[in-house]
Amino acid sequence: MLLSIIVPVYNVETYLKQCITSILNQNMDDYELILINDGSTDGSGKICDKFANKYGNIHVIHQENRGLAGARNSGIRHAAGNYLMFIDSDDFINEKININAMIHSLNADIIQYKWVYYFDKTGQYRHFEDFPLFANEPYAQILTSEVQQGILSVSACNKIVNRQLILKNDIFFDESLLSEDIDWSLKLYLHARSIQIVNEDVYIYRQQRPGSITTTASPQSIKSLFAIITKWYRYNYPNQEIRDIYLNYLAYQYVVLLTTNNRHNCDAELRKEIYGLKDILNYSENFKVRMANKVFHVLGMKLGVYVLKLYWALRKKNVIKI
Fold first, then answer.
1. What is the pLDDT of residue 302?
2. What is the distance between the alpha carbons of residues 317 and 134, in angstroms, rounded to a whole number?
3. 71 pLDDT more than 60
4. Closest CA to 63 of 80, 43, 40, 46
């Protein structure tokens, strides 16, 4: 089997049918769809079973709630495809893209594609610029270029991954973390040897959904991101080249951490520990980190963080698009 599509499901009965239908409407075959009902308390489980009873390539796993990471891990363990694709159940995919053909045309451990923002409140779509394409460049140089240009993706949902790479290197999601995609992707890039970039709008990422875990930064998400940055900042890398790539990427995540923590989700002790990592800002190959450093230089750290928080808030609401 070529592809296993893994969809964690938790209390999304409003959106689940659109997600599944967008997959079924693909002009492709030789795939399975694995729906992991992660302890839903609404009608999501029944919707999963209804589709599975109708389509032989849809399999449903009902389990007690283990969170997004736990649901994805169950999907990985049950998957039979040569490649894995992850889709969140409140999102959907572009029905005009033939994903099987995309996989057949490329030979890589990771196939990275574009996504589109769909704003749930307004029904508007936001498209992004094409990725630069890297022809015959060494793998490490591609990662370096992606970090520099701010396009290294740590989402599980905009890439197709070789399943044997995951199993051979035990690349599962850490179920103790939020922001688990970041930790998982960093493990993935560490072991992969090839990546292909595809300028196709494959994934439709729903924004502004009430109740989404991405709408607010919780205390747990702040602690998780801090733990991930600290872990990979201190990691024993195989060589200096990979270390520099990772620390330059982590500097960007550190800016995200600075601009998402506040008095509601981060106590004074943790904030002190966060500021203790500020030396990571010296790794400024990423243009967003350079921008943040310029703001900090002109305004100082405290006011600079406030200005960047305002910028990110307006950008998330689609008021600012730069």
1. 86
2. 32
3. yes
4. 40
CA angle 196, 193, 137 (to 5 degrees): 55
pLDDT score, position 245: 97
Question: Which residue has tokens 């601009």?
Answer: 259
Contact present, 199 and 130 (Cβ < 8 Å): yes
- Give the tokens for residue 207: 């924004």
pTM, full prediction: 0.92
Instruction: Specify whether the CB–CB gap between 202 and 158 falls below 8 A.
Output: yes
Are the C-beta atoms of residues 90 and 212 closer than 8 Å to each other?
yes
Between the CA of residue 47 and those of 18, 23, 36, 69, 73, what are the distances in Å? Answer: 11, 15, 12, 22, 21
User: Which residues lie below 8 Å from residue 17, measured CB to CB, with a gap of 6+?
Assistant: 47
CB-based contacts of 162: which residues, under 8 Å, 6+ apart?
Answer: 82, 83, 108, 109, 110, 192
How far CA 254 is from CA of 4, 250, 288, in Å, comes to: 33, 6, 11
